[in-house]
Design goal:
about 170 residues, six-stranded mixed sheet, 9 strands
Length: about 170
């Protein structure tokens, strides 16, 4: 189809879910304890549920990681937490705001999109390493878009640095 961007190829063990505008993209990182990175708007949560249900045992989803608390990244967190019992992780700066139910949490009023209340079970810190058992995700705190913006860098479990992972075999 002309004008439509192709979905990028995901590395082995990763499932990339292109966003339905205007929600955020999501990535499911496979392994013994799979991790879902970003849940998208609550209106996109049916798609994220379908993505999680592609797992052999959906209730084994190990963690839902939010790169920041804007509603287009965190909107489905409460639904996924309730449905699959998955703990939700977010940088500590934003976890305090979300868990104390501050009116400005998630900047929903500025984004003109509602967000269902949710709890953060794990407050992330810069340099923290999360694992699926096959892939390690390192939390990188880069405040900017929000005070707690924290994307993750990935490498196979057991590799000490991305440079040593190029030829790494699991």
């Amino acid at each position: 189809m002309a004008g439509r961007r192709a979905t990028p190829a995901a590395p082995p063990g990763f499932v990339f879910r292109r966003r339905a505008h205007p929600s955020a993209n999501s990535i499911l990182v496979g392994g013994r304890w799979p991790i879902l990175v970003d849940t998208g708007f609550v209106t996109a949560v049916a798609d994220r549920i379908q993505l999680v249900e592609t797992l052999r045992f959906p209730h084994d989803l190990g963690l839902g990681v939010l790169t920041h608390f804007h509603s287009d990244h965190a909107g489905g967190a409460g639904v996924l937490r309730e449905r699959f019992g998955v703990p939700i992780a977010l940088h500590g700066i934003e976890a305090v705001s979300v868990n104390s139910r501050r009116p400005d949490a998630c900047d929903a009023r500025w984004l003109h999109h509602p967000i269902d209340p949710f709890c953060v079970d794990m407050a992330l810190e810069d340099g923290e390493v999360l694992t699926t058992g096959a892939t390690d995700l390192s939390v990188v705190h880069v405040p900017g878009q929000t005070p707690g913006t924290s994307p993750c860098s990935a490498r196979p479990t057991g590799c000490s640095s991305p440079a040593t992972c190029r030829g790494c075999r699991r």
